[in-house]
Specification:
Low-confidence stretches: 1-8, 493-505, 564-570
Largest sheet: 6 strands, antiparallel
Mean pLDDT: 79
Helix content: 40-55%
Distance between the termini: 72 Å
Number of helices: 19
Structural class: alpha+beta
Radius of gyration: 58 Å
Length: about 725
């Protein structure tokens, strides 16, 4: 099953490829044209629908205009003095004279009980019917506003009509209703003010969706109510469109607009087949032309494929003859590329013959080079577990040329300490490794050891299974011995580096311990002077001894902190107040300042700032910087005797600045002064500022120096403040 799935499918023919190529070129073009046509159709359809909606709006506007003009005329008549005087005969004559001018079918005068008092359709005094149920009359009586009714069967004419009513008001009260009736035939011209195709249907329906007038079959359909499937979409919004079937049963697109004034709805119906006819016509011609074009293209492709196939098949025999080193006859070919291929086959035949000769010579050269470099070449067939080795390889591993080697024989020669590593590396070629490089020791039959460097690469079959491993082996015993000698030298150099580091640490201890030891000596001498007095002040001596103990403890703490600084473990940190840190340093250096007749001026931040740091290390930093400032002052004969110490809250850090008025620092040495063993002092060791910067860096801060504009230098120390603990 696996072999069957792994076999490649039959490649397609040139004829099939060209046919698919033609289809691939033509079909996308056809699809693009179809999309463009459909898009154009959609745009035209939208434009037509928009124009139709405007037409429906125009019909509604025309109907509203007719209703408003009729209402205005009726309002003028309703205000006639003839009605005020109840001269109905004269009023009948007047409405009969103006009824034709108002484009209405009749004018009625109705009292509030529904009795028709006058009608322009009947002579004055003729008996007239009484309206039994007139919603328009009730609405006019209740609101006192003009109105328009839906379509209904008139009691006098006996045909569908609509009524336009205005109230007749006396003394602020509605006493009668003056109405004008309009038949569907009178309203029908409104549908034709803008021309439409004869296949379209236009109409106006009232508030109850009964047909008031229609462009077709008006006499038969006037007054009928639309079916429910049309009433439901018409009732949703005032204007829109939907698809349904007309009363004649034709599928159409309904476009409608409802008047806010009358409540009537103007409807235009566009037959669906007229909407899609242009698209169907265009698609028909597109498909026809596409089929014709595709047929012509495939015919040309088949003809061209036949010519290409003949040319390719004619080259099969010359291609088979390439490896036989025989003259190649050139067949009849139809294409320039095929002729170029035939010439290339001729050239390939000559090159193959030349390559065979060169390959034989290269193999001989390779054998000579391998022999000269003492390279052992080997191959291992992973399927048959057969191992082939060159003569140089056999000599390298101490095997006889006639020995049939196995993998076990090879592993037996490997040093026991390296055997497992070699076995694991060789096994990796069976599980996907593409190459390997390893170094191992072998034990020769003579008892001596030899270092071997082996490099191999794996070949795979078409199923990506390893089949063959090729490689070379090289004697690297001399190189390995040289590496061992080099490692010994490196150990000696490392030992010397440790000795040098101990010397540097000793210098740093001497430099840092000088201050507390000097203080201990001064206090001890002072204690001797006090004790030499006839009546020594024991309290003063006790205070001096306490200072000696304090300085001794500080010296011990300095040694411990310096070890921590140069070691790999973290310093002992705690939360300390910036003010207490500065006070402790000022207390330690006060005697030196007095002795050198120097004044320390402080400008400290009023805020209480807290640091998380090693207090002893920061004391040493400040002491070193202050002592350096004292030394800078003493190097000038004429100088100020003031040293300034300032603290400030900068962002989320504490900045300490120590300024002197000495000779300053050369511009090119502002960074160099922090380098170990660099000093400008006659007796300096060049470790103080280096240790200070190391301490500051370990605390996540920054230490730098700059020259003052008025002389001297300022050292700035910036340290991060402790994080505020959340309650």
């Amino acid at each position: 099953m696996t072999d069957r799935l792994a076999q490649p499918a039959t490649p397609p023919s040139v004829r099939r490829i060209l046919t698919l190529l033609v289809a691939a070129c033509i079909v996308p073009i056809v699809l693009v044209l179809a999309v463009l046509m459909i898009n154009f159709y959609r745009k035209e359809e939208a434009r037509l629908i928009d124009n139709t909606l405007n037409h429906a709006r125009h019909i509604s506007t025309a109907a509203d205009r007719e209703v408003r003009s009729t209402q205005l005329a009726l309002q003028v008549l309703a205000g006639s003095h003839l009605l005020q005087q109840r001269d109905l005969r004269a009023f009948h004559a007047r409405i009969s004279a103006v009824v034709d001018k108002l484009h209405v079918d009749s004018i009625l005068l109705i009292d509030l009980d529904g009795r028709i008092l006058l009608s322009s359709l009947r002579p004055y005094g003729s008996p007239l019917a009484q309206l039994r149920d007139s919603p328009l009359l009730q609405r006019t009586r209740n609101t006192g506003l003009p109105g328009v009714s839906g379509i209904f069967i008139g009691p006098l004419a006996g045909q569908p009509i609509v009524t336009i009513a205005v109230p007749v008001v006396e003394n602020g009260k509605v006493v009668m209703s003056l109405n004008a009736t309009v038949t569907p035939a009178t309203l029908q011209p409104l549908l034709f003010e803008q021309p439409t195709p004869d296949s379209w249907r236009a109409g106006i329906v009232d508030q109850q969706y009964r047909i008031i007038t229609r462009s077709h079959d008006m006499a038969k359909l006037a007054g009928q109510q639309l079916p429910a499937e049309l009433r439901q979409p018409l009732s949703r919004v005032n204007e829109s469109m939907f698809e349904s079937y007309t009363l004649e049963g034709r599928r159409s697109l309904f476009v409608y607009q409802r008047s806010e004034q009358t409540g009537w709805t103007s409807i235009l119906c566009i037959p669906h087949d007229e909407l899609t006819a242009p698209l169907r016509h265009s698609l028909f011609w597109l498909i026809t032309l596409s089929v014709i074009t595709l047929a012509l293209g495939i015919s040309c492709a088949l003809w061209l494929a036949r010519r290409v196939t003949r040319s390719i098949q004619a080259l099969i025999a010359p291609a088979l003859a390439v490896g036989q080193a025989v003259p190649l006859p050139l067949p009849r070919l139809y294409f320039r590329e095929a002729r170029e291929l035939a010439q290339a086959l001729q050239i390939a035949a000559r090159d193959l013959q030349r390559a065979r000769a060169d390959s034989s010579e290269s193999e001989q050269r390779l054998a000579l080079a391998a022999r000269a470099a003492h390279l052992g070449i080997w191959t291992r067939d992973l399927r048959q577990q057969h191992i082939w080795v060159s003569q140089a390889w056999s000599e390298l591993f101490g095997f006889n040329d006639s020995t049939a080697l196995t993998l076990e024989d090879l592993l037996a020669r490997v040093h026991p300490a390296d055997r497992q590593h070699v076995q694991r590396t060789l096994d990796s070629t069976l599980f996907g490794a593409t190459r390997y490089d390893m170094e191992f020791r072998i034990e020769l039959p003579s008892g001596c050891q030899r270092w071997i460097s082996s490099h191999g690469s794996v070949e795979f079959d078409r199923h990506q299974r390893p089949t063959l491993v090729r490689g070379v082996s090289l004697d690297i015993t001399s190189r390995k011995q040289a590496e061992l000698d080099l490692q010994q030298k490196q150990k000696e150099v490392t030992h010397l580096a440790r000795v040098a580091m101990l010397g540097e640490l000793s210098g740093a201890l001497a430099h840092e311990l000088n201050q507390p030891l000097t203080a201990i000596l001064s206090n001890a001498q002072a204690a001797q002077r006090f004790l030499g007095q006839p009546a020594p002040d024991l309290a003063e001596v006790r205070e001096i001894l306490n200072d000696i103990v304090t300085e001794d403890q500080r010296a011990g703490a300095i040694i411990a902190r310096l070890r921590a600084l140069f070691g790999k473990h973290d310093a002992q940190r705690q939360r300390i107040s910036a003010h207490s840190l500065i006070d402790s340093v000022l207390h330690l250096i006060s005697n030196d300042l007095i002795h050198q007749r120097l004044t320390l001026r402080t400008e400290l931040c009023a805020e209480t700032l807290t640091l998380e740091a090693d207090p002893v290390q920061l004391q040493q930093v400040l002491l070193n910087l202050l002592m350096n400032a004292c030394d800078a002052q003493s190097q000038r004969l004429e100088h100020s005797n003031i040293i300034e110490l300032r603290s400030a809250h900068v962002g989320h850090t504490l900045q300490l600045s120590i300024s002197d008025s000495g000779g300053g620092i050369p511009a090119d040495a502002l960074e160099q002064i922090f380098t170990p063993f660099y000093t400008t002092k006659a007796r300096g060791m060049g470790l103080g500022l280096s240790i200070c910067r190391s301490i500051v860096d370990a605390h996540g801060g920054r230490l730098w120096a700059e020259n003052n504009g008025h002389g001297g230098a300022t050292f700035h120390l910036r340290l991060p403040l402790a994080e505020v603990s959340q309650p």
